Amino acid sequence: MSGLLIVFEGIDGAGKSTQLKRLGMALRARGRDVVELKEPTEGPHGQELRRLQSQGRRANPRRERDLFKLDRMDDARLNILPALERGAVVLLDRYYLSTMAYQGALGFDPEAIRKENEAFAPRPDLAIVFDLPVEEALRRVAERRGGQADAFERADTLRRAKAIFDSLGDPWIFRVDARRGEDEIAALILRRVEEMDRRRPPSESACQVQG
User: Which of 15, 89, 143, 206 has the fewest Cβ atoms surrounding its Cβ within 10 A?
Assistant: First the structure.
C-alpha cells in the first residue's frame, strides 16, 4: 500500500501546527495510520539548528543550509520513507518548501534548493501553504513568544520568505487563508484531503475506514 505525504508550510504564526494535529485526529478517527513529524527534527543536525534559534542566532548561511539538508536526509531515511512504505499518512510540519523560502530569503536560489532536496526526499502528495500577512504573523508570534522573535521571524525575512511561498505554483499546493477561523480551516483541509483521496486507488485511500 502506498502512503501519503502531506506537508504544512507557510511563514511563522499561521497556525500550521494546530491544523496538523487536527487533521491527524480526523484521519485516525477514520482508522488510518498517521505519523506526525516536524522539521527541524530532534536529530543531531536538527538540534543544532534549534539551539541556534533558541539563542536568537543563525549559523553561517551556507552552514545553515547544509544543516537543514543533513537533517532532512536523516528524516527521509529514518522516518518519512519507512512510514510511506508501510502505507501511513505522514503529516509533516515544514519541509523543503520552507528551506526554499527561508534560505531563498537569504539569497540562495530556491529552485536549486528544490532540485537538491528532491534528489533524496520524496515530493509531497499535498502541500498546504498557510497564507497570512506578515504584520499579522508578527503579531501572533509576539503574543506566543512574549514579544521576542527569533532570527527566522524578523519582518524583512518573513516578507522575502512569503514572496517565495507566494510564487510557488506546483499543482500539489493547496493555499489556505490563515485568517479564517480554526474550525473553518480544519474543514477545508479535510475536504481537500478527501477530494485527493477519491482520485487514488481504493487500496491507497487515506480516509477510508480500515480494520
Answer: 143
Bond from prior residue into 40 cis (ω within 30 degrees of 0) = yes
User: What are the residues facing 90 on neighbouring strands?
Assistant: 5, 35
Beta-carbon contacts of residue 177 (< 8 Å; ≥ 6 apart): 131
Decide if 96 contacts 142 (C-beta within 8 A). no
Report the share of the chain in percent with pLDDT over 70: 88
Q: Which residues of 122-140 are buried (b: 16+ CB within 10 A; e: fewer)?
A: eebbbbbbbebebeebbeb
CATH number of 4-204: 3.40.50.300
The residue to which cell 534528489 is assigned: 119
Does this model's pTM top 0.85? yes
Closest CA to 79 of 66, 97, 63, 95: 95
Query: Per-residue DSSP letters for the chain?
Result: ---EEEEEEESTTS-HHHHHHHHHHHHHHTT--EEEEESS-SSHHHHHHHHHHHTT----HHHHHHHHHHHHHHHIIIIIHHHHHTTPEEEEES-HHHHHHHHHTTT--HHHHHHHHHTTSPPPSEEEEEE--HHHHHHHHHHHHTT---TTS-HHHHHHHHHHHHH---TTEEEEETTS-HHHHHHHHHHHHHHHHHTS-GGG-SSS---
